[in-house]
Every structure is written in C-alpha cells, then in structure tokens.
Amino acid sequence: MRTAPERRWGWEKPFSVVLFDEIEKAHPRILDKFLQILDDGVLTSGRGDRVYFSEAFIVFTSNLGIYTPGPTGERIANVTPEETFDAVKRKVRAEIEKHFKQVLNRPEILNRIGENVIVFDFIRGDVATEIFDQMLDNLLNDVKSLGYDVTLSEQARATLRGLCLADLSNGGRGIRNQVEAHLINPLSRGLFDSGAAAGSRFRVLEVQTAASSTLRLESET
Predict the structure, then answer these.
(1) E strands, 121-200, where?
(2) Per-residue pLDDT tens over the stretch 190-203
(3) Per-residue confidence (pLDDT) for residue 1, from 0 to 100
(4) Is the Cα torsion angle 9, 12, 14, 19 positive or negative in sign?
C-alpha cells in the first residue's frame, strides 16, 4: 500500500527535473544523500520509503570557482569577463575539483558526477544586447496588453541600451534591474502624471538621466 508522499512521488512522477540551487551552501552531510542517488538512482529514508530517480534529471547549480578566498577571507574574483571562455572553464573546473578534494575531502562525490560539469560563460556584449532587446520588447508588449501603446525612438532605445548594459557583472538579473530603474519606473510615473487613459498612444523621445531617470513622452493620440 503506497501511503507516504515520497513513495507516490517516486512512482507517479518518474520523469522529472530535480533542481538543487547553489548546492555549495548546503550542509556537507547533505551530500551523503547524493551518493546513494548517483549510484543506485534510489533514495531510501529511515522509515524505508523509497524515491526513484532513475528516470529523473538531477541538476546542481553552484557559484564555485567564480571567487576564491583571499588572505584575509575576502572574496577575490577567480575569473573575469576579460578572459576567454576556455580560460574560464579551466579555472572554474580546477576550483571545483579543489573544493571537493581539499575543502570537503569528498572526492568520491565528484567522481560520481564525472564529466557532467557544465561551466556557463559570462554574459558578453552580443548576448547582453539580445537579452536587453527581448526584455524591452516583452515589456512594451505587456504595456500594450494593459491598453497603452508605447514606442521608443532610436535615440531613447540607444540611451537605454547604454545604461542597462554598462555593467554586466550581475548577469541577466542586473540587466533587468537596470531596465526597471531606467524605463519601467519612469514610464509608470510618466503615464500616471499624464492622466493617460486606456487606448492612449505615446512615444518615448528621450531618456534623461540625473539622480533618477525620467522620460520625455509625446502623446500620439
């Protein structure tokens, strides 16, 4: 009789993706559980309940290798966007190996993972531009779904691109934060101050930056 939730999950949802985010922050003893999963594809609890992982993808994410500890414990960048992707991969993999073998003293866990380590590159200029353009287009579509047709002049779009892509150290989330600061918030203020009604059309002519960004809007209705 299957009564335990973990039993039902193991049999009823065999084809799953199981994500463990920032696994390096977990207690080292948690890693013991993965030995059984990676060896046998099964996890057995102290009550005898079994969860089957044989048909599941297990994904660990980690920031290992991005920073290394300095002489006084401060974080020092181990890799930078100025390096080639091959150099980034080599240095990150070396730090991961060092962490498992010297810090955790658990090389057997790394052996179970084997070559299934994927190192992601920094978001570089060409990719950042694609991310920015997609975010901007999605935002304008969302605004349009609310009843406001907003377009941007080439000058405004170029200014926004420069502001949002000036610092890529925080990745895609950083780009999103800059889009919010330089477009979403001032656009909301501008539409509110104009008393715009649903169905209104506006064009952003200019992005003006000071203590906070403001937009010069022109009504097209």
Answers:
(1) 149-152
(2) 888 888 787 889 99
(3) 43
(4) negative
Comparing CA positions, the residue from 102, 84, 12, 93 lying closest to residue 52 is 12
Element (H, E) at 217: strand 214-219
Q: In what order do the strands lie in the sheet with 214-219?
A: 149-152, 201-208, 214-219
**For the CA atoms of 21, 24, 30, 31, what is the dihedral angle to 10 degrees?**
110
18, 59 Cβ separation under 8 angstroms: yes
- Which pLDDT belongs to residue 178? 94
pLDDT tens-digit series, residues 53-87: 888 899 999 989 998 888 887 888 899 888 999 99
Structure tokens given for 150: 């907003």
Write out the two tokens for 73.
């414990």
Dig out the tokens for 171 from the structure. Answer: 């990745």
Residue indicated by tokens 């193991």: 10
